[in-house]
Request: fold
Amino acid sequence: MFGYYLIIAFFVGIVSILNRNRVVRILLLGLFLAIQTAITIYAYCHLNESNTIYFKFDALGVIFMCVLTLLSYTTIYHSFIYLQHRKDSSRSQSIYFAALIILIIVMTCAYLASHLGIMWVFIELTTLSVAVLIYHERTPLSLEATWKYVFICSIGITITFIGIILLSIAIQETEITNFSFKAIPDQLLHVSASWLKMIFLFMIVGFCTKMGLFPDAHRRD
Amino acid sequence: MTNILLIAFAISLIYMGIANRLSTYINILAVQGIILFGVSFIELIQINTINLIFILFETIVFKTIAIPLFLNYVIKKNNIVREAEPFLPDFLSVVIITCIILGSFILSNIITGVHIQKMFFLVAISALLSGLFIIITRKKVVTHIMGYLVIENGVFILSLSTGNKMTMLVNTGITLDIFVSVLVLGVFVNRIGNTFEEMNVDNLTNLKD
Reply:
């Protein structure tokens, strides 16, 4: 089911890049919201079942997914009015909505991923799609914001990747190296505490940089 | 042999501290690509051919040829001044990078209980920290990308030390990182060059709440 969701939703995203017609755009956005709502309801009904190898409907992920789905309604509605008000060209509207759709899909995947590497890949993809959204206005200020966002997020995600590599070194000694969240704790039983602390440090610094908690990526002064 | 190459990599980091011209930075990046090729060629010789070809392609074609050419193109196209314009004097940069290498040497010797090749760990951590140092002490936007690429090289060395098991993860990670670093950052550097007169970080301070 989740695989079908991914295929259809990405297809909608790609079609909305190519589309130039206003009516078709509204239909595509409606279709996407319907798919997103359907997968959320499906996930709620199948709580704690792993769907494909890399995705699992765990409870925490489903809570965040519900919030995301609710927010995606308001966000898409608001963006629609905002872009109409700005009188943007049809092409830039298409790019904006495609990036927005892909961002929502990728965030859903990041919430539901049950594999550390896959989660990292999807978090990296959010950086790319958000960069398109920030650069929508094409002004010097938005260019500056995009540059800062992309740069700081890439460095943060690289630091996280170092943490993941160190984790893979730690669990390398067990027979089967498995990176799913369920299997990681069992494999860490004989790893020394100082090494784990270092992994934790890298990951928390990296993810917090990505979220904008540490440096002034989203600064207020 | 691997150790010699890794020490050469660490020396190239120190050299980056005193390098004055942007072309020197680009040459250092190319040399680092060749060193990475050597290290991966020695270390990963026994894994399957496709992965080996992939990694070698990445080091030689991307890191040694494509990225330096691309950075050269960016510098020429935007008429960037050739000096690196650091905020700190060169001498201090060298001292700080040496301290970074010394610190990671001590750190890698403190760690016990995990089977890791210490030399790889040492060089990777020092590449990470000196990359961050280069980013925060240089004025130009292009040198920021160069510092980021040094961090990428460090990640590559660290991933080599995991050996043969996690190749899928390592390949996806490195491919994505290269994609982000070169494509996206390159595109935006060109945009910044078109929008502002000089590509300094001083121009990027207008964003306020």
Remarks:
- Chain B touches chain A through 47 residues (CB under 8 Å).
- Residues 70 and 92 of chain B are 30 Å apart (CA to CA).
- The mean pLDDT of chain B is 81.
